Each structure stands twice: as structure tokens, then as C-alpha cells.
Amino acid sequence: YRSGIVIFLNQSDPDLSKKSRYPLNKPIPLIKYGSEQLQMAKKLVSELSGAELDYWVATAEGKYAYFENDRCFTAFIDGNIKYYYVYSPSTNPAQGWPIIERNKISINYRILPSGIRDCIAVIKMNCSTTGKTGLIAAMRCRVASVYGETVGDHE
């Protein structure tokens, strides 16, 4: 993980003890993963962070996603193969900024009277959210623009 490599079992190989190495943010072919939807308790968008926030951003963007071990994964299909890759738009500008630009999210930075730095993200004055960083605030704003103030019990 520290070197930027994730190790997964190559599940298409009959000998599951063999390991394959894949660079982070590159498509990872995984054969075994069902289509079960992740069931979560109702939660305020303003409390989402990390992989959980990334999961809800993915669903707001219409992507299939799941998270495990504090990391979010999403998939795309190429022919008959599903490719899963690490999805972290709340911390990875390469994944977050296209969402910000496509949805015209405005980010403003402020310093609160207590001295804490905070960010506010706004989409067309329809929703406003805050976060520790601009990416976190913007991704919360994207989720809130689709699901409202809470997530976790939507069809």
C-alpha cells in the first residue's frame, strides 16, 4: 500500500494462493464480486468522510461502488470483464475536480472565529456543505444535491 501498489488475489486463477500486483487507480480485474447493494444506516451528509463519502459520491455519479477496508472501489465494464479500481474523489484531485467542474460546484475557503480553517461548497445556491478541505466539501455538496441532507435509506 505504501508503495502505491495494491495486492489482490487473482481470482481467475484456479490457484488462489498466487497474488497479482496492480498499481493504485489502475483498473483491477476481479471476477468474484456479487451485485449486492451496500446497506447502511441513515446518516447526515455533513458527517460523511473517507471511503463512505467516496461511496456516496460514486452512487450520486451513477457508478456501481462498494467499500471495504476503508477504501472505496468502483467498476467499469469492458466487454465481458468488470474492472474495479480505487475511487477516492474526496482526497484525489484527479477524480474529484472533474466532478466539481461538471457540476459547477463553487468552493470558498474561510477561517472561523475559533481559528479553524473551513471550506464551503455550493451548487447553484441549491445546496451548501462544509468540510475540512475543498474536495471534501465539494463531494458532500454533490451527494447532498442528489440525496438531500441524509443518505442510507434511499431506494
Q: Helices, strands, pairings?
A:
Blueprint lengths: L4 E5 L9 E5 L4 E2 L13 E2 L5 H11 L4 E4 L2 E8 L2 E6 L6 H10 L2 E7 L5 E7 L3 E5 L2 H14 L2 E2 L4
Question: Which terms summarize this structure?
Answer:
disordered N terminus, 155 residues, alpha+beta, three-stranded antiparallel beta sheet, globular, single chain, 3 helices, 23% helix
Description:
The chain has 155 residues and is of the alpha+beta class. The protein is 23% helix and 34% strand. It has three helices and eleven strands, in the order ββββαβββαβββαβ. The chain has helices at 50-60, 93-102, 134-147, and strands spanning 5-9, 19-23, 28-29, 43-44, 65-68, 71-78, 81-86, 105-111, 117-123, 127-131, 150-151. The strands form four sheets. Strands 3-7-6-5 form a four-stranded antiparallel sheet. The protein is globular and about 55 Å long. The N and C termini lie far apart (34 Å). The model is unreliable at 1-39 (pLDDT under 50).
Short summary:
Helix content is 23%, strand content 34%.
Distance between the termini: 34 Å
How would you state the average pLDDT, rounded?
A: 76
Radius of gyration: 17 Å
Number of strands: 11
Query: Strand arrangement, largest sheet?
Result: 3-7-6-5
Count of DSSP H/I helices = 3
For the report, how would you describe the main beta sheet?
Answer: 4 strands, antiparallel
Helix and strand content put the structural class at alpha+beta
- The shape is globular
Order of helices and strands: EEEEHEEEHEEEHE
Low-confidence stretches: 1-39
**Helix share bin:** 10-25%
Strand content: 25-35%
